[in-house]
Amino acid sequence: MPARAGEPLAAALLAAGVQVFGRSLKYHRPRGPYCLQGHCSGCLMRVDGIPNVRTCQTAVRAGMVVERQRGWPSASFDAFRALDWLSGQGIDHHSMFTSSAATNRLAARFVRRLSGFGELPAGEPRPPAPVERWQRQVVVVGGGAAGLQAARELHRRGVRSTLFERQEVAGGRLLDGSDSAGGDGQGSWARLAELHRQLEGSENLELLPGTTVVAVYPGDRLQVVAVQERRTLVVEAERLLLACGDYEQVRLFEGSDLPGVFAVRAFDRLFYLHGVIPGEPVVLCGDSPRLLRLAGDLVAAGVEVAALVSGATRPPLPAGEGAFPLVPGRLPVRASGGRWIERLEIAPAPSEPADGLFDCGCLVSEYPPAPAYELAHHAGCRVDFDSACGFRVVVDDGGRTSNAAVFAAGHCTGAMSLEQALEAGRRAATGMAESLSGGSGRED
Amino acid sequence: MGKVIVCRCEDVTLEDLRQAFAAGHRDLESLKRFTGLSTGFCQGKCCAAHAGRFLAELRGGDDMVCDPTRTRPLLHPTPAACFAAIASGEAPDQEDA
Amino acid sequence: MRDRAELVIIGGGVLGLSLAYHLARMGLGDIVVIEQGYLCFGASGRNGGGVRQQWSTEDHIRLARRSVAIYRRLAAETGFNIWFRQGGYLFLSRDAVAAATLERNVKLQNSLGLRTRLLSPAQARRLVDGLDTSGVELCAYNPDDGVLFPWPVVWGLARVATSLGVEINTFCRATAIDVQGGRIVKVVTDRGAVATSRVVNAAGGWSSQVARLAGVELPNRPYRHEILVSEPLKPFLEPMVCDLADGTYFSQTMRGEICGGLSDPLEHSSLNTSSSLRFLSRMSASLLRLLPRLGGVKILRQWAGYYDETPDGNPVLGRTAGVEGFIQLNGFGGHGFMLAPAVGQIMAEWLLRRVREPLVERYGLERFSSGQLQRETLVIG
Fold it and tell me: Does 3.40.190.10 match the CATH number of domain A131-247+372-436?
């Protein structure tokens, strides 16, 4: 299979026309990536003998052995999908096969054989990874807009910080294509370049990309556990600044879990960064200016766009006006297709009958991302619920959480613009610097 | 009418949530246990917000959702080998999450 | 909430609900259960689901055997799948003393009708592919032990009990037990009071706190116990593996996850359910040591619950001297789930028929002051 070196495996597979990456647990529904951000389970495959590998987080290499998991006779054509067709609204696994004790024992044996994703890792057992114990004054988790801006502010104030970024390249949202050309000429790529320039060679910043923070243990000293490919870091930190961002979501409706339905930023990266169009025609659902810009760019690139469906009754007109139908006042209510989305039905509201149908080779579904609140919750910080985005870390203007040693900024604290995330990063860093110097933050 | 999948990892449908709520599981911890929601590979990253909205709607407001389900390490599934060599001689209550 | 009941059970865990279930099936449904959280909030919702019959005392062996028989039919009785999988339990001993204990236990277990047998390390390796038995002296294996899903056991018992008249109040906390003239007259909760003459303390980790509401001091103390679970994989492990040297235990659930924990000698008594890095690292090291090919298996989640421990490793059952109507059903350490079906049944018969029950007499609270202790030594997994 041809692929570009270094490209995520999932993007290469989509470019090669792979539709089904695996099968779901209970109903054997087809699964494929929708977040391409390393948080969903849609892109899991067996890679080089290792089960449940996130292919969107794995760089493609020549000679890789990539296999689908689950499904009989194969994940691509899975006879157990019949369970899905036959079960209507679902199977109650609590009550099935409980008619008699003997039936129950027999059924349990059968169910066990259907359970599980993937076989044990093949080959030599993985030996314990080397561990390093570090002590740091300030640890920043997340190198997106808020985290980088916070590091920049800490640097300016002469405070040393260690920044862990899960991806190989820091930038987060600032790397996204459709934000790259902001209306004011201050596009996100320009902002990112500026931040990198300001931080370059800084003795105050220890930047570790390719490092995943997997746990925070609170106590007298915070312990941050970060995992790299070849070693594990256990870092004792005096202060922690969480800028972990958020998780892409898609709108929920019947069939919204079909492969071919993508979150906006996932599609955005496929198109702008990797040049991959996973299916045509493209239908876009949402209201934001960035989605309209994306639609315009798709048309300009010669991609067939079937429609832009907008929940708003009067959305702003897209740049490429007239190149595709703009359907206001409608929401997607049903996606259908065998192994990949083929059709999309829309309606005035989820409870009303569908009044429109599109052939659909790929759906870009805009929905508020969910803040990544988990590490803050590990650390005992207060988290609340806001239906606009989901659970989020509660912070004050200075980024302080309910744990005095932990600060948070950016999208893990709720929905905001890129500018607001940058500003929140700056404020949290200021608040933290003040807390370190006993209330009088030093201005250089 | 087909399925609306809320939790992709465990194939939990919107109807499963409705039935669990009707059966008296009216807080997220109970809903999670009864339906399997948020117990899979992604540990809720793709469904916790959706489930919170479901609960907020049925209980009549965001304030009624209270806390998310208890968050436990790990943030991402990680090989046991990554932790096996962490020598840890400290007292157990010095490092709790 | 009812303002009057024949019996109030404090604690909606597996023990309290097993008692309510058996009483209701025997005809006494006028019961109010008070649970401070959601169903499965306490240890009943946090354990690894191991159910074994390999014990070191006759009482425990008999109770466990009876419980396994009940678990085998419970799904059909309650209409709730509990996914009980009898893949066996494999104990590993690493020194002569532990090996001698296993030999003695197996003899006792065989005499009581269990199919336990001693295995050499080589035989154990045939049972668990890839098991590292270096340093292992002797093993004991019972093919009828197993693992189940704890949550649906609780829901099933609750649903049947409710249908037979039991009222279960979740998110309801007992704040006082009113004792007048040495007799219980009512239980006060944050949602109202229930007049009753009998109260069962089935509060697990909180049982000492609940006893204090009636002015009674229990020797029970809660200890945190941690556990973790891996990504779900296709079936590859049949038995629960238990290492007597450090208390490591792990098995594969019906969902395919490796689920296990281990004891921590440094743990001190507390009602703390936080997770620790110390456990994550010790447990990971144990898994790699016992089954090296688990090194590449991904850990999904760790959590914690309680062991409700007593000085002799045996439960506290029955009447309480000085407070008439106050009944203890607690102190089951980390194995309440293994024994709850049988204990609930026996206690129900004892309460309803008012017959003499040797078990209840042996494990009464008075034993701690009279000094007649019989130690249970197999208190892991």
Answer: no
